[in-house]
Each structure stands twice: as C-alpha cells, then as structure tokens.
C-alpha cells in the first residue's frame, strides 16, 4: 500500500493564509482585521430564552431592537437582518412583490439570484438594458426613460428590479426611476448589495433608500466590517406587501439562523452608530490620497468621477478601484495575476480591459501605499517595454438583446440535452451560462441561443474567462426538441 498523503484541511489552509502577507482588495469589508469577535464558538447558540427569534422577533426583543437600529441608521421604515446574504433578500423581494406567473421588469445585468427569484415564481421577464461605457466596455447606467417606456409599452408589470451600483461602481438614477414607478403604483426593488456604505458620507453616491426605492437589499459584508453572508433588507412605502416579504424571508433563510452572523451585523451597525463619522472621514482621506497618487500613472489608469454623466452613469462609487489596462497589451486577468504573484495583493475580479478591487473603511494607509507602489512599478515596466503597449484598440461587447421564448420557470422544468456550441444556434437555452464574478448571465433558460451569442461565448473562452454552466467537454444545455 502506498503512503497516504494528507492534504491540509480547509481550517489549516485558512490559518496559513491568515498568517501570510497576502492582502485583499476584495470582499469581505472587514479585511480580516476589523471586528469584535474572538472565538465564534462561544457565541454560537440557538433560539434560547432571552435571545429572540429572527423569524418571529418579539416586540421588544433583542433582535427586533437590533433591526430597528439598522432602520434608524439607514433611514428606512423597516429593516431585516439577512444571514443568507443578499441572495435571500433578492429572492424574498421578488417573491413578495409579484404573483406566481406574473411579470417583472428586470435590468439585464442583474445578478443570477434575481433570475433565480424569477424562476421560482415562474415570472415572465421583460428586460431593460444598461448603456455601454466604451472606454472600458463596462455596463453603464440604466436610463429612467427606458424604464418609463417599458412600463408604458408592456402592461401587467408588477415590479421593477434594478442593480445599482454595479460590480464596477456604476450607479443609475434611482430617484428618477422611483418617481416613474410610483406614478404607476409599481414598486421599485434595488439590488444595492455593493452600496451598503453609501449613507455614511456624502463622498459616496446617494443610497437607494433615501432615493425613494421601495425595497433595498444591501450586503454589509461586501463593503463594511461584517462577516461574509450578512446583509440587510429595507422596506418603505405602501406599494409592497410587507407581510408577504416577511413570509418569504422565513422561506429563503435558514430556520436556524446563525447568532454569530446576526451578532456580526449588530456589531457592525453599533460601530457605525458610535464611530462611523470619524471612521469614514479617515477612510475617505486615505482613499482620496491614493486616488490622487495614481494620477501620474502613464499606462495604467484608475477610473473615477470622469465616468459620471456618460452613458446613463448617474454617479460613480469612488471606493471601487477599477484599474484600467486599456492602453496596454496586457489583460485585466494578467494584471490581477501579476499583483497576486509578485506583490501578494488579491483583487476582486478581472475583465478583458480592467481589474477591480474593493476598498473599505478597514483599509489603512499602508495598504493603499502598498497597492500604489505595485501599480507604479508595473506601470514603469509597461512604459519601458514598448511591446507591452497597446497598438490597437480593443472593441468590447455591448449587451446582446435577449429573446425569451419560454418563461424561465417553465424552461427549467423542460427535458434537456447537452450539445456542442456549434449546434446551439436557434436552440432554446436549458441552463444558465455566466461569468463569475460578477454572476450576470450571458444566457438565461428559455432564451434563444443566437449566432451572435455563440460568438460571444467563443470570445470569452478565447480570452481565458471562466464560463460557468457548461457541461462535459464544454457542451451547452438546450431544451430537447420533440
């Protein structure tokens, strides 16, 4: 018998990584340093006497009071803790604002969880598309006029779902959309998972709660010092059935909610209430100094407020570090890999022309300085090597117009077969295909797979991007023809 090689356990790998010099400009926002917990096992209990119940909080119970703190901080009429992430909030909001088989107006660049919510309710989807910012070939904003036109042209829409900010920090005009929706008595749901920090400084874009959205979902773990899987759902106004949303929160969240995660949310909110003004003032000073320090980069570029006002971009979240490599011959993936391997700096995600980092209140001056030095050293290498300079402009991919042929929920229940990509044109998709992150589907079950879409898939694969949803030997799921 050969010698058994013991691989390190997940706990051992995590401990080793924690002891290393790797630093993350990615979520979670506590950056593995800011928090009040020591041994989580000491805090891990169930719904015992005196500790309330997330699904049935007492009128003056400890969890009810904690959620009221959240509502007070965010200026919402009602706030709920989410311990299954923003995903649980998105599923609950969509289910609570629609009827089975109803109709949802959805921004096409929404996270896959929104599509899952539509599938669970077997909703008919109508899409609105973001503009395209050609300099980086990223999704721009959603125009309120497009929302208005869709609502005028398509009767029966029960709710509108918008993502703002995007993964790259692009914000749409939520106030304008809310006004349009409310004139027609339709609730506006906003996935603001990446904008939980917005209310704590005027330096950041306006948050969707104060902009008038009816249901807002925010991930406190993404940009604030809270544990992964923690989020908030806010409700306001009279257009939504609050009891229905509360019911679905109990459906999509664990019946044994983690007190460790709930305590993490409460601890984060308590910190913001007590020290938020000073913490954000210092953070914004560090962030702005870093941004100013990047102005002299020659080949690389840090995207900023210049995006605002272009292609539906109502505002831009400057905490999002979008590092452009558009004037170089390297890809965003290569940029991200270089920072990881050479400088032990891990970013959040990469695309063809850029890589994106997430900053938060937990990032200190030395962390920004370390990233700044790495970018300048790489920028110098690119400047000194002409072959690494870009000789032709890369033309990206604007959103393809999707053609839903079957409701999503119906398509998911159909018999499927797995075929080669070359055999997919004119077939109906049987499964999701998406790049992750950010988890936005290239194709949704029930949509027609066009030749243009097949070309987009081939281009993504040629660029080395990881495409989730393919089967063995790269086959694609389509609905079986009868």
List the helices and strands and how they pair.
Elements: H1 10-19, E1 23-25, H2 62-74, E2 78-82, H3 85-96, E3 103-107, H4 112-120, E4 124-128, E5 132-133, E6 138-139, H5 144-153, E7 157-163, E8 170-171, H6 174-183, E9 188-191, E10 215-218, H7 220-223, E11 231-235, H8 242-252, H9 259-293, E12 301-302, E13 315-316, E14 320-324, H10 332-343, E15 345-347, E16 349-350, E17 354-358, H11 365-384, H12 408-413, E18 416-419, E19 427-428, E20 433-435, E21 440-443, E22 448-449, H13 451-462, E23 467-468, E24 476-479
Parallel strand pairs: 1-15, 3-4, 3-7, 7-9, 9-10
Antiparallel strand pairs: 2-11, 5-6, 8-13, 10-11, 12-14, 14-17, 16-17, 18-24, 19-22, 20-21, 20-23
Describe the 3D structure.
There is one protein chain. With 482 residues, this protein is α+β, with helices and mostly antiparallel strands. The chain folds into 3 domains: 230 residues, Aspartate Aminotransferase, domain 2 (3-Layer(aba) Sandwich), CATH 3.40.640; 106 residues, Aspartate Aminotransferase, domain 1, CATH 3.90.1150.150; 72 residues, Alpha-Beta Complex (Ornithine Decarboxylase, Chain A, domain 4). It has 13 helices and 24 strands. The strands form 8 sheets. Strands 2-11-10-9-7-3-4 form a 7-stranded mixed sheet, sandwiched between helices. A 4-stranded antiparallel sheet has the order 12-14-17-16. Helix 3 crosses helix 4. The termini are far apart.
């Amino acid at each position: 018998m050969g010698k058994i090689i013991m691989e390190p356990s997940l706990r051992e790998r995590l401990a080793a990584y924690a002891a290393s010099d790797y630093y993350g400009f990615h979520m979670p926002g506590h950056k593995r340093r800011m928090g009040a917990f020591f041994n989580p096992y000491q805090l891990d209990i169930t719904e015992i006497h005196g500790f309330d119940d997330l699904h049935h909080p007492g009128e003056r119970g400890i969890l009810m009071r904690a959620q009221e703190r959240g509502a007070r901080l965010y200026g919402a009429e009602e706030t709920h803790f989410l311990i299954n992430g923003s995903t649980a909030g998105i599923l609950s909001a969509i289910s609570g604002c629609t009827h089975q088989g109803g109709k949802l107006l959805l921004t096409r660049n929404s996270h896959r969880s929104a599509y899952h919510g539509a599938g669970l309710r077997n909703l008919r989807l109508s899409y609105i598309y973001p503009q395209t910012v050609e300099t980086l070939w990223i999704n721009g904003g959603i125009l309120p006029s497009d929302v208005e036109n869709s609502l005028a042209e398509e009767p029966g829409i029960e709710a509108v779902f918008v993502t703002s900010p995007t993964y790259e920090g692009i914000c749409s005009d939520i106030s304008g959309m809310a006004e349009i929706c409310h004139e027609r008595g339709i609730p506006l749901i906003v996935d603001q998972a990446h904008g939980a920090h917005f209310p704590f400084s005027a330096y950041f874009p306006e948050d969707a709660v104060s902009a008038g959205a009816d249901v807002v979902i925010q991930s406190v773990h993404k940009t604030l010092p809270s544990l992964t899987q923690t989020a908030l759902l806010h409700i306001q106004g009279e257009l939504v059935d609050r009891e229905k949303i509360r019911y679905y929160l109990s459906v999509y969240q664990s019946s044994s909610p983690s007190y460790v995660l709930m305590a993490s949310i409460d601890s984060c909110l308590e910190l913001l209430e007590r020290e938020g003004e000073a913490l954000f003032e210092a953070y914004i000073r560090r962030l702005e100094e870093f941004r100013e320090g990047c102005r002299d980069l020659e080949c690389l570029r840090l995207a900023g407020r210049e995006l605002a006002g272009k292609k539906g971009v109502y505002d831009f979240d400057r905490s999002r570090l979008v590092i452009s490599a558009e004037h170089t011959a390297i890809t965003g993936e290569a940029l991200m890999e270089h920072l990881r391997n050479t400088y032990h700096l891990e970013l959040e995600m990469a695309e063809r022309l850029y890589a994106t980092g997430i900053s938060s209140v937990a990032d200190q001056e030395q962390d920004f300085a370390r990233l700044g030095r790495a970018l300048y050293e790489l920028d110098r290498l690119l400047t000194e090597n002409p072959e690494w300079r870009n000789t032709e402009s890369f033309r990206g991919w604007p959103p393809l117009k999707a053609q839903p042929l079957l409701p999503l929920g119906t398509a998911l229940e159909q018999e499927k077969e797995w075929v080669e990509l070359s055999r997919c044109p004119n077939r109906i998709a049987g499964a999701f295909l998406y790049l992750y992150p950010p988890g936005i589907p290239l194709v949704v079950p029930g949509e027609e797979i066009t030749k243009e879409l097949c070309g987009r898939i081939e281009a993504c694969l040629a660029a080395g991007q990881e495409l989730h949803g393919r089967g063995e030997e790269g086959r694609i799921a389509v609905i079986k023809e009868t």
